[in-house]
Design goal:
By secondary structure, the protein is α/β, with parallel strands linked by helices. It has 9 helices and 10 strands.
């Protein structure tokens, strides 16, 4: 970092994240890479963390992290590369320590690390389940807790940005992935509540963008990784002061805020319910979705993907 103004692509510019340090996991490719490069362009010192694995989590290599960090430095930014896994607390501590060793602080975290092991629900193995849930859900916990502890000790606040993509998409053969992402949403909400008063914010972005994971599963969406970066930069910056516990979706030029799950219809029966009475009423209840945001879970995969293009 070079103070209030930073050199980026040969120019002296004032950055949105000057004097900040941001850790980005999964930063070797896709959305993580776009966020890391964009954050550096806004003046942040960036830890480019990526285990460098294949789409299914195998064959780790630190080369992708090194390449992105080198690209940032070549453009005038400041970055270090780390090739550790987020699936263990030890790995998370080494990633965060890289920021402390280089700059002495951590101000922001973006959790973009992810793998994909698609399988039908009946055929999914324990290894497939543990691998995906371990990377996405546990990986969010290890990184968010480790970074938040440092931020709390610093006493200067900070921003945690989770990635909850895929939870609402009715895509088959992704029970492990979708369950993990649902957990990420709950984790983000809880972290925001528990960290209230510390100045540490926690928000979740659910992006729809063409990445190695989506294309590997046969998806072609409107959005690209660079489209997601501005929303993440906003959440990392002081512009989002007071914004916490929120879920945002991003697809191309479309950004939306999501509410918590809520009751869409209430039934009451004087004297209590019987199975026969429920059999008469439940069909109407489960098909009576509210108009705003209705029918997401009723859409086919094709309908949902088409909806993201508009």
């Amino acid at each position: 970092m070079q103070g209030k103004y930073t050199t980026w692509k040969g120019l002296w510019v004032m950055g949105l994240l000057d004097d900040r340090v941001v850790v980005v996991t999964g930063a070797g490719r896709g959305i993580g890479r776009s966020v890391a490069v964009a954050a550096a362009g806004e003046g942040a010192g960036v830890v480019v963390a990526d285990y460098g694995v294949a789409m299914d989590g195998s064959v780790p290599s630190s080369s992708v992290a090194e390449e992105v960090a080198g690209e940032i430095r070549a453009q005038g930014g400041d970055a270090v590369a780390v090739g550790d896994s987020v699936t263990t607390m030890e790995g998370a501590r080494r990633i965060v320590q890289a920021a402390l060793s280089r700059w002495g602080r951590v101000d922001g975290l973006v959790c973009s690390a992810g793998i994909l092991r698609p399988s039908s629900f009946l055929d999914m193995t324990e290894e497939d389940w543990d691998g995906v849930v371990g990377t996405h859900l546990k990986g969010h916990f290890t990184m968010m807790q480790t970074a938040a502890r440092v931020m709390a000790e610093q006493g200067t606040g900070g921003s945690l940005v989770a990635m909850g993509s895929g939870y609402l998409s009715p895509t088959p053969h992704l029970a492990n992935y979708r369950a993990a992402k649902a957990g990420v949403l709950a984790l983000t909400k809880t972290a925001a509540m528990d960290l209230a008063g510390t100045g540490i914010r926690a928000n979740c972005v659910a992006p729809a963008a063409n990445t190695r994971l989506t294309e590997g599963h046969g998806l072609r969406l409107k959005g690209d990784p660079d489209d997601v970066a501005p929303l993440v930069l906003y959440l990392l910056s002081d512009l989002a002061a007071g914004v916490t516990g929120q879920i945002f979706s991003s697809a191309g030029d479309r950004i939306a805020g999501w509410s918590d799950p809520f009751e869409n219809h209430v039934l009451r029966q004087l004297g209590g319910w019987t199975p026969d009475a429920l059999a008469r009423e439940i069909p109407a209840l489960v098909h009576d979705h509210p108009a705003d945001g209705a029918g997401v879970l009723d859409m086919t995969h094709e309908e949902f993907t088409e909806n993201l293009k508009h």
